[in-house]
Amino acid sequence: MIKFEHVGLRYGIGPEVLTDINFVLEPGSFHFLTGPSGSGKTSIMSLMYLGRKPTRGLVTMFGQNINDMDRSQLCALRQKIGVVFQEFRLLPHLSAFDNVALPMRISGHPESEVKSNVDELLEWVGLGDYKNVLPMTLSGGQQQRVAIARSVIARPKLLLADEPTGNLDDNIGFRLMHLFEQLNRMGTTIVIATHSQSIMDRFGHPRLVLEAGNLHVHDNANWVQKNIEGVY
Q1: Domain ranges (residues) in the chain
Q2: Which of 57, 69, 119, 150 could form a disulfide with 7 if both were Cys (CB 3.0 to 4.6 A apart)?
Q3: Is-contact 57 4, C-beta < 8 A?
């Protein structure tokens, strides 16, 4: 699903923010991405959702080398990826319903199917009574739930979530984690960036740990130093 080989990333002429990153994520895997602030989590997520290309090294997504892709090819590949951004990125002129429905409508699903799926998912995340409300009138936690619903509505092959439970109470956060696990059981590969020790401890998935631009892998039993070869 994802393969990084000796990947480095820098912004402009500054020092590398990611240094010699090597890892493989198999289809259907579930990993937490964690590390202290400034360690490079946002940068590595941007490479995974094809927001930028590496400064050096090779990134392979869905078996394809992204380094040589043009904009149209990258756009086509992004349709397989669901992303939950920290800043939500909801369209302010669209209702909660229409924000969540957007990926299905872009993919050409019948409106009857769109309505049933969006209604069900908004109920599931506790926003069934808010479907006609504009994002600006929702709280931060409610906007986050709309963004999460939008990211999963089309059942992406890869889901990337940046602190998806950060603005939510534990009950809603755990409920959404169960939604992610259900998607994972249906075949979606999931990477969740989080600082929440309670979430990581409770759900027990392997961790990708970034420290000062270097990657380590933690399988919840043993630490494995970076530069691993093959699949863990």
Answers
A1: 1-80+158-164+188-232
A2: 57
A3: yes
CB 122 within 8 A of CB 98: no
Write out the CATH class of domain 1-80+158-164+188-232: alpha beta
Residue 71 to residue 147: CA distance in whole angstroms: 24
pTM score of the predicted model: 0.81
End-to-end CA distance of the chain: 13
What is the amino acid identity at position 15?
P
- Give me the tens of pLDDT residue by residue for the chain, a chain 232 residues long: 899 999 999 988 888 888 889 989 999 999 999 988 778 888 899 999 998 889 999 999 999 999 888 888 888 888 889 888 877 889 999 999 999 999 889 888 899 999 999 999 999 888 999 999 999 999 888 888 898 899 888 888 999 988 887 767 777 778 888 888 888 998 889 999 988 888 888 888 999 998 877 788 777 544 333 333 333 2
The pair of structure tokens assigned to 22 is 């090597």
